[in-house]
Amino acid sequence: MKIIMALIAGIVFGIGLIVSGMTNPAKVQQFLDIRGPWDPSLAFVMGGAILVGLVAFRFASKRKHSLLGDVMRLPAATQIDRRLVLGGLAFGTGWGLAGYCPGPALASLAIGGAKPLIFTVAMLAGIGIFELFERSAADKTRSA
Hints:
With about 140 residues, the protein is mainly α. About 75% of the residues lie in helices and about 0% in strands. The protein contains 6 helices and no strands. The protein is globular and about 50 Å long. The N and C termini lie far apart (about 45 Å). About 10% of the residues are buried. The mean pLDDT is about 90.
């Protein structure tokens, strides 16, 4: 049942990204380029997503278990640290240059084309490199 619910949630999310235009790199770049022909429409998409997220997290924070019975594991970090800022800068830079972020890139794979495929391969390579660095740092910490 959990896999079916995850599949349904992923399909609904992907359709929402496609319908909202988040899978169109040109539209995303026009939103991010406030000095050029700025397109504010994605701000409404993000605002709607934030509102849904606020309600969902408020509801989830009052529960010990998810609707499917899993233990609730909500983020506990509250500090803005160097890793968060650098990660946000890297994410934003990549999003602005490519016009894709992870969710829309994966949804764009369904539409086809080389650009979302290249972005997804590069994203997965970046995740792999990050994991290698994290494991190496954890091994050094354990050895010390």
